């Protein structure tokens, strides 16, 4: 019998790539219910599966709920109600901990409380790196199974050769400024280091909302400084809306180095995409990025509790190393496919074990 998984969400690239590349799987995933919220182009957020009453109304349609992310605005009490509903219907809960700090939350308290509810209640806990698993064990006493992040980039881009370009291009993408991002100090440090990086230039990308005075997300400190740096020729500034996937992959392959301007974080899909495309990442030491994929770390004061401040060199030194060594870190497409197949099999085993455990306790059986 094929177990049906209510994934929160199902449409995200990470979850889509939990399926094997050949499509042969014992698992069926429910599509994301259309959000109620008036969010332009929303495919899955905010997730309706975590709304009060959804589990009770749809319990006969799935066997396992697997929560990844999207619970940013769901209160711990409402998450506890979801857990209670799953228990009433004999449905296992699987949780993958992607973020130990929510990149959208300025303060960590709410996310800590939300994770506490989910991790303590989960029938199985997964995460992406050994460091994150150790932190989960220290904070909640739960053993988390470490399963790597699958590839992000699809073919033919995964195998596409990198086109040569002149000079040494460093990129910082300000995007729409999540709470975890603090790009201006990073940009200033790169600008100060450029004279010591022969042939180097800095490309800064920012979304239109960040750069538009009067917009609710206008970055009042960042926008005028970026324009001044661009006017003086110190920064190659690009202002635009969200890239399509093809535009994003093309952009990443136009860079030699992508610098992540994060104040806090845990794991990174951006890092995975860069690894797929052969772009070196210079990342802060506030998360578990170096355990996730090869990258060069730089020190961020007051970073993750598992790290000692000063354990990584300053950004300047990280840039000098990237410029000197020119790392050739890129995923092998065949290995990525084999890895994805193994990731899919591991998830099938996790779901089967969770269902067997519930059945042994007198819970529900598969719906299909």
TrEMBL record:
Domain of life per record: Bacteria
Span list, region Disordered: 19-39
Name of the protein: D-inositol 3-phosphate glycosyltransferase
Origin organism lineage: Bacteria, Bacillati, Actinomycetota, Actinomycetes, Micrococcales
């Amino acid at each position: 019998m094929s177990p049906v998984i209510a994934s929160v969400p199902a449409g995200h690239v990470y979850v889509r790539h939990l399926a094997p590349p050949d499509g042969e799987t014992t698992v069926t995933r429910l599509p994301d219910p259309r959000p109620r919220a008036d969010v332009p182009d929303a495919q899955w957020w905010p997730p309706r599966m975590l709304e009060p009453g959804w589990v009770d109304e749809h319990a006969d349609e799935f066997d396992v709920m697997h929560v990844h992310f999207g619970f940013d605005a769901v209160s711990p009490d409402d998450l506890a109600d979801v857990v209670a509903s799953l228990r009433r219907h004999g449905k296992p809960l699987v949780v993958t901990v992607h973020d130990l700090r929510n990149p959208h939350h300025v303060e960590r308290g709410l996310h800590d409380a939300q994770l506490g509810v989910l991790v303590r209640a989960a029938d199985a806990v997964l995460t992406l790196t050994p460091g994150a698993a150790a932190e989960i064990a220290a904070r909640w006493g739960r053993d988390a199974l470490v399963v790597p992040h699958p590839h992000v980039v699809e073919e033919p881009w995964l195998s596409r050769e990198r086109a040569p370009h002149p000079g040494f291009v460093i990129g910082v993408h300000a995007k729409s400024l999540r709470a975890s991002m603090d790009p201006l100090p990073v940009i200033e440090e790169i600008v100060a280091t450029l004279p010591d990086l022969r042939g180097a230039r800095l490309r800064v990308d920012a979304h239109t909302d960040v750069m538009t005075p009067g917009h609710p997300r206008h970055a009042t400190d960042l926008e005028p400084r970026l324009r001044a740096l661009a006017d003086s020729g110190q920064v190659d500034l690009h202002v635009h809306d969200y890239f399509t996937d093809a535009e994003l992959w093309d952009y990443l392959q136009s860079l030699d180095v992508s610098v992540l301007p994060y104040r806090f974080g845990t794991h990174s899909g951006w890092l995975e995409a860069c690894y797929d495309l052969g772009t070196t990442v210079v990342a802060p030491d506030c998360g578990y990025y170096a355990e996730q994929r090869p990258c060069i770390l730089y020190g961020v004061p007051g970073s993750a509790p598992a790290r000692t401040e000063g354990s990584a060199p300053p950004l300047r030194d990280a840039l000098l190393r990237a410029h000197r060594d020119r790392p050739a870190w890129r995923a092998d497409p065949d290995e990525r496919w084999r890895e994805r197949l193994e990731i899919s099999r591991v998830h099938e085993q996790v779901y089967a074990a969770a269902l067997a455990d519930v059945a042994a306790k007198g819970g529900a059986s598969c719906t299909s």
